[in-house]
Amino acid sequence: MRLSAHRPRASIGVFSLLLLLFFCQSALAAGAAKNVIVLIADGTGAEQYTLARWFKGAPLAQDAILTGMVRTHISDSVVADSAPSGSAYATGTRTSDKFISVGPRAKVLSSEPSPPEELRYRPLATVLEGARVQGRSTGIVATAGVWHATPAAFYAHVPSRTLESTIMKQGVHQGIDVVLGGGRGYLTPKHAGGLREDGQDLAAVLRERGYELPTTAKELGAAKGPKIFGLFAGGHMAPDLDRAALAPQEPALAEMTAKAIAVLSKNPKGFFLMVEGSQVDWADHANDPAHLISDLLAFDRAVQTALDYAKKRKDTLVLVVSDHNTGGMSIGNMRTNKSYTQTSVEDLLEPLRKMRASAAALWARLGKDQTPERLQAVVREDWGLSITAEEAKLVLEAAAAYPEEPYYALGQILCPRYTVLGWTTHGHTGGDVPMFAYGPGGPKGLIAGFEFGQATAKALGIDLAALNRRLFVDAALAFPPGSVRLDETDKNAPVLRIEHQGRRAELPVNTNLLRMDGRELHLEGLVIHAPDTGRTYVPAQAVQRILGKRVP
């Protein structure tokens, strides 16, 4: 397809690009912090923190640094999905449901102003990309697949979080120094046992770029850096509660956080690191208190690791936040309507202490023998509950409503009967979430999610507007009409082709590659195509190189 555009004034465009690069360099100046660590407990509200605190029997790592709350609504919904919520934290811009760091669609909440047309669907630069352009080291740590919504929001630009193969490709070409988590399947093609349908071997790309690729905790410990792309599961990592039994080779979240900090902190210019406790959200979706507590306390240990590092110095900002609440968990339920003022610590904790497996792992143990008698036995073994045959039957009946996640029925039916916990949904909820900050430049008070992103950028000394102009130039406006064409012969690997004054350039979409004059250049940003508008964006660096101007 040929990209349409108004005819640009080429001479002014070239001059403007030269000025742009100068001012962008100036705009990415030193901020309040040399290092910034953002830790996100996915799906966690104040009540979940309260439960974890009771279970731990001591303050949580971030309790002493509570600074405010975050309003989590997105541009088109009062209740947020992780993709746009994480994107707000990453880009400083509020966007739409399922979007990963691209501008919102036209339809927004009645309380929100309509976004300008030039903002819609275009890629939005992230604080991670800004830190990398500054010369800082960058890192991503998660217990989900690293292509999952929240981690992806800090490095990828797609109109749907479901485009996992594309997200991983962008992540590989983003030049992140340390990536640790799950999701190894999207590195390799299907014919080699992976999940990629484009036939590309991204593991080979990483090795060519000098990355170590550990797949176990032992290999991670032995990795020397400075570039590590460690994926410890084909899909998501195991719940912390199940790790010892099901995946003992996987590192804990705190281990990955410590390794990332150790590697990234060697850069004298500083670093940016995002750490996600991914599975608190999944536990809440399942109404699974044991999974919730174990993964939130694993996150707590990761927060402590970050704070231990920051408290030894004065140049590191640690931010702890959630992207939204999930499950609507409450301490107190319908069963405690008349007894809530007599709720003891034992009433709260004793049923939970007996739960030694996640709901998903418990259900997996059932296998095909899904009879009330077998369920009673497994629940007694894994959760320490002596449920009745009638309750087991109710669980099995409720499970039929969740063909993809039948284990959702366990918490739904059993928690109201055997715990003092309540749940309102298997989905997300729209309440404000706690925010914690330690170090220079931390935000305070009640702020919106996009303001959290702007505060992070400010602490790093990043001008997001200038960064967007530097990393994402509309190719059709940068070159004369007819010289730019998107070649979609291979739907899995489109290529932007540019012919200018006898020179031919190829820029594979979703990569940072420019091929021209028999050479391949690694650009400072990605080539991104916006299918909703038909526009393709390239770094200003690519435009200058193709036009024959000196690249700074």
Keywords summarizing the entry:
single chain, five-stranded antiparallel sheet, about 550 residues, alpha/beta, 21 strands, 3 domains
How is the secondary structure organized here?
Layout: H1 10-27, E1 35-41, H2 46-56, E2 66-71, H3 82-91, H4 127-134, E3 137-145, H5 149-153, H6 164-173, E4 178-182, H7 202-208, H8 217-222, E5 228-231, H9 243-246, H10 253-264, E6 271-277, H11 279-285, H12 289-310, E7 316-321, E8 325-326, E9 330-331, H13 345-353, H14 359-366, H15 372-383, H16 389-399, H17 408-418, E10 421-422, E11 428-429, E12 433-438, E13 445-448, H18 449-460, H19 464-471, E14 473-474, H20 475-478, E15 484-487, E16 495-500, E17 503-508, E18 513-516, E19 519-522, E20 528-530, E21 535-538, H21 540-547
Parallel strand pairs: 1-6, 1-7, 2-13, 3-4, 3-6, 4-5
Antiparallel strand pairs: 2-12, 7-12, 8-11, 9-10, 14-21, 15-16, 16-17, 17-18, 18-19, 20-21
Helix pairs in contact: 1-19, 1-21, 2-12, 3-18, 10-12, 11-12, 14-15, 15-16, 16-17
- Would you give the CATH topology of the largest domain? Alkaline Phosphatase, subunit A
Number of strands: 21
Tell me what the CATH architecture of the largest domain is.
3-Layer(aba) Sandwich
Give the CATH class of the largest domain: Alpha Beta
Assign a percent range to the helix content: 25-40%
Structural class: alpha/beta
Radius of gyration: 24 Å
